[in-house]
Model the fold of this input.
Amino acid sequence: MANVLAFAEHKDGHVGAAGREAIATAARLAAELGGVAHALVIGAPGTSERVGTLGASGAHSVTVAEHASLAEYHPDAYSIVIAEHVRGGSYAAVILPATTLGKDLAPRVAARLDVPLASDATAIETHDGVFSVIRPVYSGKAFARVTLDASPALITIRPNVFSAEAPAGAGTVEAITPTVDIQSAGLRVVQRLGADGSATDVAEASVVVSGGRGLKEPEHWQLLEGLRDALGEGVALGASRAVVDAGWRPHGEQVGQTGKTVAPKLYFAIGISGAIQHLAGMRTSQTIVAINKDPDAPIFGVADYGVVGDLFEIVPRLTQEIAALKAAD
Done:
């Protein structure tokens, strides 16, 4: 029982960074235990034709549970499929990404398997086959070490913290047709509202430009859009809860304890005071740049670079300088 299973979240057959990080993490853990990593993908018929590259992320084998009823995420159906697959595979651990979907799905899988869940892991260790997880607590003000003595060890990993690189696996793909009865489920999905498909997901971006109430009104968001465009492709816009609650920005951009957890290479906090709920969602970013007129703003306590001043003067100048550097290259 040395193999490790990763749930590979995808969108229309494309497995993003979070899903590949889960597979690579499973591959590294399985290697320590003397086993291999297996990946599980759930989706509509035909999904198996689009996931053949997961071997490059470390998957020895990829099982694709295909069913017309699984085309859209359904928490009851997905948790049943995962739990049944785990029972039939005898895995040492199951890894899921701590995305919005993963946070909703993992506790349901844990309940069906009757095992504890270690969520939002930032580090995972194995000692004599026992898994030990480091995870943030108290809104990220401290970190706890959790030892999982149940089997399998069920863990969700914080996006952008674990590397998506691992030795390539065989990547063999097998499609199965699970038994799905959504009609008898206690939950029914009636509508799904998604963000603009052309925008980079804030949870997967390597650079995030976030704004808060310091921007004063939604019309001033064009300043952040200009900075995002100057920085180049793969940059996402983020927002504090205050501006999302005010209706300035969509919930999909919210960073924080009740929004999305991000850990990009570079995080701009512009006009954000730094409430503990916001810090909980971004303090593991590799480099944090804060711009705020209040020198005592809590955000400066976690920032690597802090600029005290008027964002309406600083951001346009910063955008101009970055654009000039890009043009020179």
Observations:
- The longest strand covers residues 59-66.
